[in-house]
Design brief:
Blueprint lengths: L10 E4 L9 H18 L8 H8 L4 H11 L6 H22 L6 H11 L3 E6 L3 H11 L10 E3 L14 H10 L6 E5 L2 H9 L3 E5 L6 H14 L3 E3 L5 H11 L3
Length: about 250
């Protein structure tokens, strides 16, 4: 009888938005209103919907997204204004999620099982602000599975704010936890998130269960696979099978 596959993993890193919490569409709905207000104030006729923002900016932090939008439309944005709009965005997104937010289907059950099993150190690695991540995991009940020093934000956890696909936040998380890349496994839903984890030499599962339509899921499945994800997970209920496949592939 053959031996079971070797398990190299000691740390499991979760993205937050649209991986643990079903928040990306709510956030983009809120952000589109703010972006359109900015465009209108600057006399620009273009307008965005949550769908157009998701198609172009899924996985981006607002601080990375807004300057790109302003540059595209010829709007000068001072550091002070960026800070102001970022504060407004954070406040509005947290309020929207508080009213309508929920966890991704099946995510909390898997995280609970991993937490109770005690075999892995669980961490959140996000491009969103720390206050937004904390609010979302508190609202959904996920917070109890993550120690306070295991929640990392590319906006707040490092001395120099960053955003995925920059791998800096993953590298920072590993340094803080004393982890080596081959000991880590990441779950990401966006191209920017997957690229960040992969650039940090972390084996990555691409999760597509949060995308609203079958066509978008299929598109993202192919996109994340091309980006270098080891395995694609369609739903959280597929976790056991997907994790076993990761071990068999020796993707780490």
């Amino acid at each position: 009888m053959s031996e079971p596959p070797r398990n190299p993993y000691k740390f499991i890193f979760f993205d937050c938005d649209n991986t643990i919490t079903l928040s990306e569409y709510l956030a983009m709905e809120t952000v589109s209103g703010l972006v359109n207000d900015i465009l209108e104030r600057n006399g620009k006729p273009e307008r965005y919907t949550k769908e157009t923002l998701i198609a172009k900016f899924v996985g981006y932090s607002f601080r990375k997204m807004l300057p790109e939008i302003c540059q595209e439309h010829g709007i000068q944005l001072s550091t002070e204004l960026l800070q102001y709009y970022a504060s407004v965005e954070e406040e509005r997104v947290i309020a929207t999620f508080g009213a309508r937010g929920q966890s991704c289907a099946g995510a909390l059950k898997i995280i609970e099982n991993l937490y109770e099993g005690g075999e892995y150190k669980l961490a959140i690695v996000s491009s969103s602000t720390l206050s937004r991540v904390q609010a979302q995991i508190e609202i959904t009940g996920a917070a109890k599975y993550f120690e306070e020093d295991c929640v990392f934000s590319a906006q707040n956890s490092m001395s120099s704010p960053s955003s995925k696909p920059d791998p800096a936040i993953y590298i920072h998380a590993m340094e803080k936890l004393g982890a080596k890349p081959h000991e880590c496994l990441a779950i990401e839903d966006s191209i920017t998130g997957c690229r960040a984890a992969i650039r940090a030499n972390i084996a990555t599962i691409g999760y597509v269960g949060s995308y609203e339509t079958g066509g978008h899921r299929e598109f993202m499945k192919n996109t994340l696979k091309r980006a270098g994800c080891c395995v694609i997970m369609r739903e959280w209920e597929d976790w056991d099978r997907v994790f076993q496949r990761m071990l068999e592939m020796e993707c780490a």
